Amino acid sequence: MSCRRLLITNNPFLSKNISCSLPVEGTSLDVLRITREHVHGGWAVLSSPLYGNLRPHQHPYRSVLIEKSESQSGEVDLLSLELIENALLIYTSQEFSILSSEGMPEEVREDFACIDAELMKETLERYRLFPRQGMEGRYL
Asked: Is the pTM of the predicted complex or chain greater than 0.90?
């Protein structure tokens, strides 16, 4: 499937319910690294990589919405690059470990997934990516 907009996420709830998503098996830091690779490939960041002011040690899930440039030149969007590099700097400069959902009770993982989905909801609705019906689970 070819999508002009793509949600890069390690949130299983969002990756299951958003058709244009790239599921990431890993931490929120992995999401940011994959986003950076896409930015270098000509994609632009549409949502803040640091939304909700949640730090790596506070939240296991991260989602970033990006958009493919219509230009065929593949030029790097400098603002997007600055956003993602600053987020990576914050993640890698701290003396704490990145929170992972591994080993968490299912209820706790669901709560964290719900928080991430709620923080992304307005952005996803703005770009008509958030499903209005047929959502599974207890979210939103």
From this structure: no
